[in-house]
Specification:
alpha+beta, 419 residues, 15% strand, 9-stranded mixed beta sheet, 46% helix, two-stranded antiparallel sheet
């Protein structure tokens, strides 16, 4: 139980710490926002050359983000969204036209971690996916399916005994693999969409398509498991390119710092601020009288940038050494920070970027600020407290039927019922 008076007292006691941080943070953000606006006046080639020189001089190992040629046409890092509506009904009409006849698919997952309820460790993962062809019959044509997998005591104990890995590492990896497998099957099903004269299909993943060794080390993921994540996501990105079916990694609350790292690299005289991240930077300048916000309205996005983050392995490069994945930031709500979209670089090269981003915009209109397909997949995949209780009961019955030498404690089941 949370004791609110204690919380209120602690907040009051430490108020000045929050005030100091907010002031320093705001000043840093405004400094980065000013530098980003100034960078918009240069060409993509100039920025790439300057970044290469700075790296050569030892300023950093990687640029983080490198703008594509889209910057040259836009003349700024932010591309305004041209559509404006007077009501949500008008927005929905636009969204439904964008989605009409277009097949979208989203996948999400959930998991049951091993606990002390069972005398031997056992876990489970579940992935669900929602495929919607957006045809007039609607309810009769969409697909909502799921897949469930157990992780046995032998597998979990081997993971625990393998060094830095934990059982939780294994469960998270299996869930990730199950989600990506569902999306990969969709990519294969939509292969040949051009020849069939269909609109561009889009697959949505709730998470990033870029996994750096730095990030997995920070999260204490063992090297073998880190490698498993990288191989899984790179295979999906390459399959997207092969099938020509766009795959989008949607990150609602991103703390990535790729644009910030580029600005640090090109501004050696300005002190870097470790607390500033891209999404906060892009939603900045609302209190700066001399300049407009970087994002002015719903639907605005950044130009497409290649991601060349430090810690990315060569797996995230093609045979010529070019980045496989890039990103844009997209304003999907009236207020708050933008979402990040990780998008395979081939989508930009194939001139499908605007169509793909419009599809995400349309999904967000239907989902009231969050992609409807992802929202639906999440609802189908989630494992509730009641579901966990059913899982424990099934495990208990299974052990009794098979005369297996493990048992399920009644205490956690009782606690779950009370809560």
């Amino acid at each position: 139980m949370l004791y609110r008076p204690h919380l209120n007292a602690e907040l009051s006691e430490r108020r000045e710490e929050f005030v100091r941080f907010e002031a320093a943070w705001g000043a840093s953000v405004e400094s980065y926002a000013r530098r980003l606006r100034e960078l918009g006046g240069r060409t993509s080639a100039e920025i790439r050359d300057a970044a290469a020189e700075a790296i050569k001089a030892g300023a950093a190992r990687a640029a983080g983000a490198l703008p594509t040629g889209e910057l040259d046409g836009a003349g700024a890092f932010v591309v305004p969204f041209g559509e404006r509506w007077r009501s949500h009904e008008e927005a929905r009409r636009w969204a439904l036209e964008v989605l009409r006849g277009r097949v979208t698919c989203a996948a999400d997952g959930s998991q049951i971690l091993p606990g002390r309820e069972i005398s031997l460790p056992v876990a489970a993962v579940q992935a669900a996916w929602f495929e919607n062809p957006h045809t007039p019959d609607g309810q009769d044509s969409y697909r909502k399916e799921s897949r469930f997998a157990l992780i046995t005591p032998e597998e979990l104990l081997q993971a625990e005994g393998g060094g830095a890995a934990t059982a939780a590492d294994l469960v998270s990896l299996r869930r990730f693999e199950l989600e990506m497998a569902a999306l990969s099957e969709f990519l294969e099903r939509r292969r040949g969409w051009r020849a069939r004269g269909e609109r561009t299909p889009v697959a949505l993943f709730d998470g990033t398509l870029l996994l750096s060794t730095t990030r997995t080390r920070t999260q204490s993921v063992a090297p073998d498991f880190s490698r498993g994540y990288v191989e899984t996501v790179v295979e999906a990105v390459k399959l997207s390119r092969e099938t020509e079916v766009p795959l989008v990694g949607y990150i609602d609350q991103s703390y990535a710092r790729d644009i910030v790292r580029l600005l640090d690299l090109l501004s050696a005289d300005a002190p870097p601020a470790a607390t500033v991240f891209d999404a906060r930077l892009l939603s900045a300048a609302r209190n700066e009288a001399a300049a407009a916000p970087l994002f002015n309205a719903w639907g605005d996005r950044t130009i497409f940038c290649h991601c060349v983050r430090e810690g990315l392995t060569q797996d995230f490069q093609d045979a010529q050494g070019n980045p496989l994945v890039g990103f844009v930031y997209l304003q999907t709500t009236g207020e708050g920070a933008p979402a990040r979209l990780d998008i395979p670089a081939w989508v930009y090269d194939a001139k499908l970027l605007d169509e793909v981003v419009n599809t995400v915009r349309a999904e967000c209109v239907v989902g009231n600020g969050y992609p409807y397909a992802l929202e639906t997949a999440d609802a189908a995949a989630v494992i509730t407290g009641h579901d966990r209780e059913q899982f424990l009961r099934a495990m208990q019955e299974f052990a009794a039927e098979q005369n297996l030498g493990f048992h399920v404690s009644r205490k956690p089941v009782s606690k779950a019922r009370r809560r």
